[in-house]
Write a structure and sequence with these properties.
Blueprint: H1 2-6, E1 16-21, E2 33-38, E3 41-47, H2 52-63, H3 80-91, H4 98-117, H5 121-135, E4 138-142, H6 153-164, E5 168-174, H7 178-183, E6 188-189, H8 192-202, E7 206-207, H9 209-219, H10 223-231, E8 236-237, H11 247-254, H12 260-269, E9 271-273, H13 274-278, H14 285-297, E10 301-306, E11 309-314, H15 318-328, H16 334-359
Parallel strand pairs: 1-5, 1-6, 3-4, 4-5, 7-8
Antiparallel strand pairs: 2-3, 9-11, 10-11
Helix pairs in contact: 2-4, 3-4, 8-9, 9-10, 11-12, 11-15
């Protein structure tokens, strides 16, 4: 949930977002959910179920005590009486009678619970969508392995109904259910931009959405590349002009290891002949010459003959550098990468803690 809590406005787009997470971060089966307000955006997190009735009950159980966040949106039609009453007796600061408002709210919520228990479907859906439209939350469904559900269609139709009514939906599922969930929801989105913004923040950098998109494009989702870029950037990256990419640091790290030393030296010299570069390395002249020819083929350097000498020149612009990265790194799903990053850090902390227990 940290990724959503970090920048909730990116999710408030009336879309269906699918977000893979570690199994341990999904709500337990006996927990209905919770509600937080971040940047004035309510984030309603509930446990999703193949049973529509149970899913609706989970939403209502989270909302039943949240009367104070339902300031009326007068553009929403439906259940006008209760929201006008709440506005008059509670939100209007000249009156502000909490107890009268709470009594009326519980009466309405009690009626809605009764409708659910009797499964008066039409009334339940009408009242529920009105309440959600007034709240206008990001509705996050925590899901266990949906591939093991007996049926998914009811939940699919419910999610699509909510989206059609203008509610922003996030489906959080374990990694093992990610592909299955993607195959069963049309027009879903994956918010990799939010994931990069969150990761950058863990590294001490505040970045904009545009900068996040560029980092994602350059890195192909590889945290190692993102780390190299951020290490040479300012702490606050508000726009693309703030993003200074040091290709000299990145390219030696993404090429095959055999080229690392020679490429680092090339970036220092810029222009050179075989002897000049050989003197800086422990390779034979023939090995250096072969490497240089291969680097010519990779468009990192240019080769030309001047009299009897062969000269080489660094030839890397932004497009070439980008092409080199794209050709030499594998595409990674940023959510899987961040999960691995968090697990490594957790393991380190556990080892330190265990050491304290043993020697303390």
């Amino acid at each position: 949930m940290e990724i959503i809590y970090n920048k909730p406005e990116i999710y408030a787009t009336n879309d269906i977002w699918i977000q893979p997470v570690s199994r341990s971060s999904v709500l337990e089966s006996d927990v209905v959910g919770n509600c937080k307000i971040i940047n004035d955006i309510p984030i309603l997190r509930v446990l999703g179920s193949p049973s529509l009735k149970k899913t609706v009950l989970n939403i209502l159980h989270v909302l039943k005590d949240k009367m104070t966040i339902f300031k009326n949106n007068f553009e929403i039609k439906g259940m006008d009486n209760i929201f006008k009453y709440l506005n008059d007796v509670y939100f209007d600061k000249s009156v502000n009678n909490y107890y009268r408002a709470k009594k009326a709210w519980y009466r309405v919520i009690g009626d809605l619970f009764e409708d659910v228990n009797n499964w008066n479907f039409k009334k339940v859906m009408g009242k529920l969508i009105t309440i959600l439209k007034v709240l206008n939350p990001i509705l996050v469904f925590d899901l266990h392995d949906v591939s093991k559900w007996n049926h998914l269609k009811t939940f699919q139709r419910f999610v699509q109904f909510l989206k059609n009514e203008g509610i922003s939906i996030v489906l959080r599922c374990p990694f093992e259910a990610y592909s299955y969930l993607k195959n069963n929801f049309e027009n879903y989105k994956t918010n990799s931009v939010a994931a990069v913004i969150y990761y950058a923040k863990t590294k001490g950098h505040l970045i904009s959405e545009k900068v996040s998109e560029e980092l994602l494009k350059i890195s192909c989702g590889n945290l190692r590349i993102i780390d190299l870029i951020l290490a040479n950037s300012k702490r606050d990256l508000k726009n693309m002009r703030d993003l200074k990419i040091n290709w000299k640091k990145i390219i030696p790290e993404v090429l095959p290891k055999k080229y690392k030393n020679i490429v680092q030296k090339i970036f220092l010299l810029k222009k050179f002949n075989i002897k000049e570069i050989s003197d800086m390395l422990e390779y034979s002249s023939s090995t250096v010459y072969n490497y240089l020819n291969e680097l010519v083929g990779l468009n990192i350097i240019k080769k030309r003959k001047v009299n009897k000498n062969i000269l080489f020149k660094l030839d890397v612009d932004k497009k070439t550098a980008f092409d080199i990265i794209q050709s030499n790194v594998d595409f990674k799903d940023i959510f899987f990468e961040i999960n691995d990053f968090k697990n490594i850090n957790l393991k380190k902390r556990t080892e330190i803690f265990n050491g304290f227990l043993i020697f303390g």
